[in-house]
Amino acid sequence: MEVKSALSSSTRLLYFQQNLAFGLTEQYLYDLIRWTNQKYRVHLVFPDAPELESFQQLKDEGVCLYSLPSDMFAGNSVRAILALSRVFQRIDPDLIHYNDPVVSGILAGRVRIHPTLVVTHHTPELDRGYNWRGRLLERLAFARCEPHVIFTSENDRRTGIEKDGIRAEQSAVIPYGVDLEAFEESFDKTEICQEFNIPLEHRIVGNVARLVEQKGHDYLIAAAEIVLSNFKEVTFVVVGDGHIRENLASKVAHAGLSGRFVFTGQRSDVPRLLSAFDVFVMPSLFEGLCMAVLEALAAGVPVVATPVGGIPSSVVDGEAGTLVPPRDARALAEAILWMLDHPEEAGHMGMRGRQRVEEQFTVQAMVVGTEAVYERLLYRRNSQGGLV
Length: 388
Fold this sequence. Notes:
Blueprint: E1 12-16, H1 24-36, E2 41-47, E3 64-68, H2 78-91, E4 95-99, H3 103-108, E5 116-121, H4 132-144, E6 148-151, H5 154-164, E7 171-173, H6 189-195, E8 203-208, H7 217-228, E9 234-239, H8 245-254, E10 261-265, H9 270-274, E11 279-282, H10 291-298, E12 303-305, H11 311-314, E13 321-323, H12 329-341, H13 343-360, H14 363-384
Parallel strand pairs: 1-2, 1-4, 2-3, 4-5, 5-6, 6-7, 8-9, 8-11, 9-10, 11-12, 12-13
């Protein structure tokens, strides 16, 4: 007998976004919504913040948007939990999917209604700044509300189980997926060089990341000094924004490298900029599965990165790039110099990286894996008539 699917065109999916910045984890949510919205009734709750303006584009695709005052997302107060629960009650979703653990949101999902709860836990190593009450509430949310947790790498799942008390059977590993169509177009490197006043003969060493301490930009600057003392025709391009941008620019100036660094700020044309990079560098101190690294691989750019978090699952050392110890500027510089000195071998690494993404890290595979989690949980919930 054919088993009826628990997912249908009438299934109501609610996605919940808390962060006020639009970074690569928000791009993950954006891509996931665009695909699931083709099949289901999709709603998105997110803070009313200028940085999240990109989400407004989803309205044209039929997504029901709920842009709420940002103070409703701050902290884990009873007031915030009750306010969010009223919003959830009006939507009455079958399933709520949180983009990162949001204690107030998870608890709100159990106050008035009883949907299935799913959390994508992007960076379990990240210190979310909770005091002891916040940490207690977080463990309570995972233990009592029993959300199913999606990790993007096996390393992250191990960390989440150890740090947050998440049960193995309560979790799944679904890697990020890259929309490869965005990397099919050919771009003119000359135009990009002219836009940023980069000499045409220069090689470009690039980075795409939030400008926060976690990403290790201090070590990139230190490595750049070593690289430029050995290889003159290089410009370093840093794409992204964050609270340490001015500090980084000051360090670059102090090192006498202002003419060799370009800070582009936040950009919406990352595939275009990646196409101009000769080497991509990600010197992170800790990570989940790094979406920026996956996008560099998709663009066919060889990668130099640190073997933290989920990065080794995407960058196999010596195949699609080189892995170096974190906090080691000299090792970082030596790996960059090798790429610059061996362009043909580096090019082959870039091609192997692209192939790896095509085989393991597509947005289609990410959506299929996520839908399978939804299907399994909703089927069990419908069969048991209980909370899942």
